[in-house]
Amino acid sequence: MRARLRWVHLILGGALLMPYWLVGTVVVGPLLGSGNMFSNSLAVQFGAYGVALPIAAATALFPLARPVSVAVAKALCGVPAELFAEGPARSRAARLRTSGWFTLHVGIGALISGATLALPPFAVSLIVVPFFPSLRDWLEMPHYPAWQLALFPFAGIAMLIALAACAAAAGALLARQAQVLLGHTPADRLAAAERRATELAERNRLARELHDSVGHALSAVTLQAGAARRVLDSDPDFVREALAAIEETTRRTVGELDSVLGLLRQDDDHTTQLGGPALDTLDGMLARSGVPVSLIADGDLAAVPAPVSREAYRIVQEGLSNALRHAGAPPVSLWIALRGEELEITMENPLPGRAPAVRPGGGRGVRGIAERATLLGGHAQAGPEGALWRLSARLPLAGRR
Q1: Which catalysed reactions does the entry list for this protein (predicted)?
Q2: Hey, what CATH topology would domain 190-396 get?
Q3: Domains of the chain by residue range
Q4: Confidence class of residue 346 from pLDDT cuts 50, 70 and 90?
Q5: Which strands sit side by side in the sheet containing 332-339, from one edge to the other?
Q6: Average pLDDT over residues 113-122
């Protein structure tokens, strides 16, 4: 089945060369003294063939030639689809490869097509002519001895086998070259790698948003619910405040979650800017974080560019989540300051008396903070310093995004 499809592919190549061949006969015919473009002269026919191939190669330099060639080769060459490059040929190397493939396709296809048209009738005639004397007379064949006529059928069968073998070999050659000439060029691979890197970076960015937003909310809600449960009978006013904080936290988090999920559905746009809370909403988050926080702000935080402000908010949020998760709601000291062209964030909280519980996989909060800072061209680090856990980040105001 595959060999038959490749044979069809070769015949299609011969058909595609026909317009170029007709142009070639117009050029070559007068040069060889033939006034008939359909001359039976082999010199005219092969001369036109030689002129047609460069013209075909030139027309295949157009970018859209590659997707057409790829579509045909996928269907008829039996080559896995993932080995072909997608889209128009943009680079010079890709256009030259496509031109080489098209020229090879139509050039070999024309030869196989011509042989397919001419050889079978001749071979069949050789097979049957020994059995029909009248056919020999009609063909005006010379007299051959009987032993020579007995060889004619074998010669005809050999021609048909040779034609099939040549077609199979030519089809296999085209299939091998399709992977090279219609496959991915270095520029294609680089572009694909850049697209994958962009998509992966966007996925990681959305994952950080979900982790920081939902993780902080769950930590705060867990702490507030636990505290309310312990004083449920003795301090109803505190329970009401805790439930109000839980309600506000979950409402805000649902809104943030809906925003991120909406971006995930936008499959055709991987560069959409994330919205979300920024430093101007920091007071509300600190008041309901479940951690006592002393904030010292130095500078006009409202002047911080929006991308940097959003990332700074998430860094603070993740720092508070870590304090809740690992230290059990200790007092936290937070400094946010504008220093020239940078925003500095420093957060400290006492280390717990016991070793913090370690989640399977080690958690992703500190790593996410470092990634956020790096993507903006800054840096962040976190770790124990004496009896304190210290988080520090420096974010350029002219962030990369």
Answers
A1: ATP + protein L-histidine = ADP + protein N-phospho-L-histidine
A2: Heat Shock Protein 90 (3.30.565)
A3: 2-184, 190-396
A4: very high
A5: 293-298, 332-339, 342-350, 388-396, 379-385
A6: 91
